Structure to design on (381 residues):
């Protein structure tokens, strides 16, 4: 790559997102700890997972801090240092569930700071180089490549040790991310520390941004049924931990293909039309889970991973292109927070509805909610 700065932008974005992906390494061990050691039901596991990711719902606040204090690069270093401390505690100490969830939430918050800082760099530099879609494709390819390790590696750790080993394996990864962060040279801009009200007015009086935010919430909202499917895989299909992890790895490979395709076509597609098509595609794929067998489970994971990643990056690129100049980290974080809030709302509503209406009607309801965002598509520029 001829442009040295652009190279380090890609390298840093890739490293930060690879780290986010590899942070899922203890995930399978945690799931089996909650399910098989503590005997928690699916809805309780879903609820605890939502609590641990609370910081991702206040990303605009993190974005505002990052936009106005220090540099985005500096926040990446701060996050890496905190994460090393948190995973050492999680890996070395067996603790009660309350403290475990609190520490998971702290680790998640630190990761959210690093994510927002990297996304701020992506928005600023991506718009400068007209490469927001390509940078995000690289980011999510990195997440998925990390998923190749977390699928098999997480299953191996879960089968032979426990979740704490997974956390200890993250320490060297955090240290390696510091390398591209050191070589990326961020242009310093003068910080305005007394413009909070002005900035809030800019954000919340921007009609286009508000419409996009509402669209993102409705587009992403759907009562979740992912955890019950894992219960079916384990208890009904009698799949082993290694096979579940291997299937996740196969899905990741397909997701990488979807991300590569978006990298290739990101500057050519009609985003508004694709958003419209994806609504109907999402409803159809959701309904297909009414017929869930060992064979279709494999087929769904492979096909939907490819399509889902293409559409996912398209939506993220859509949000990055509409970030507000001078408040890139804040505005993009606001849209991402709305996205995460919608996903968390879907998890919580799925956990609440599952014992009342059952899995079949939960899937039907989830498919129907796909159409809530349709009226807003025509209002998007």
């Amino acid at each position: 790559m001829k442009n040295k700065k652009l190279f380090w932008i890609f390298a840093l974005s890739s490293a930060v997102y690879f780290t986010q992906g590899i942070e899922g390494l203890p995930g399978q061990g945690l799931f089996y700890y909650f399910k098989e050691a503590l005997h928690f039901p699916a809805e309780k596991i879903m609820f605890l997972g939502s609590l641990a990711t609370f910081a991702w719902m206040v990303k605009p606040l993190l974005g505002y801090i990052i936009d106005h204090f220090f540099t985005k690069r500096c926040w990446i270093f701060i996050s890496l240092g905190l994460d090393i401390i948190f995973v050492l505690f999680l890996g070395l100490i067996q603790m009660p569930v309350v403290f475990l969830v609190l520490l998971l939430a702290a680790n998640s918050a630190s990761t959210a700071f690093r994510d927002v800082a990297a996304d701020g760099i992506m928005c600023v530099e991506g718009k400068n180089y007209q490469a927001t879609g390509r940078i995000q494709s690289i980011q999510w390819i990195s997440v998925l490549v990390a998923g190749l390790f977390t699928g098999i590696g997480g299953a191996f750790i879960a089968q032979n040790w426990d979740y704490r080993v997974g956390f200890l394996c993250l320490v060297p990864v955090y240290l390696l991310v510091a390398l591209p962060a050191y070589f990326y040279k961020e242009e310093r801009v003068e910080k305005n520390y007394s413009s909070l009200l002005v900035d809030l007015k800019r954000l919340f009086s921007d009609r286009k941004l508000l419409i996009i935010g509402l669209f993102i919430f409705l587009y992403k909202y759907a009562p979740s049924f992912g955890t019950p499917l894992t219960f079916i895989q384990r208890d009904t299909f009698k799949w082993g931990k290694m096979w579940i992890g291997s299937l996740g790895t196969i899905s990741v490979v397909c997701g990488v293909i979807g991300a590569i395709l978006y990298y290739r076509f990101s500057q050519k597609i009609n985003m508004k039309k694709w958003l419209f098509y994806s609504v109907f595609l999402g409803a159809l794929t959701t309904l297909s889970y009414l017929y869930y067998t060992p064979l279709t489970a494999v087929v769904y994971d492979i096909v939907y991973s490819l399509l889902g990643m293409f559409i996912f990056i398209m939506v993220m690129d859509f949000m990055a292109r509409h970030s507000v100049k001078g408040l890139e980290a804040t505005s993009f974080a606001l849209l991402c927070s709305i996205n995460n809030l919608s996903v968390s709302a879907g998890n919580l509503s799925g956990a609440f509805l599952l014992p009342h209406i059952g899995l079949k009607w939960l899937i039907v309801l989830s498919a129907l909610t796909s159409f809530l965002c349709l009226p807003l598509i025509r209002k998007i520029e």
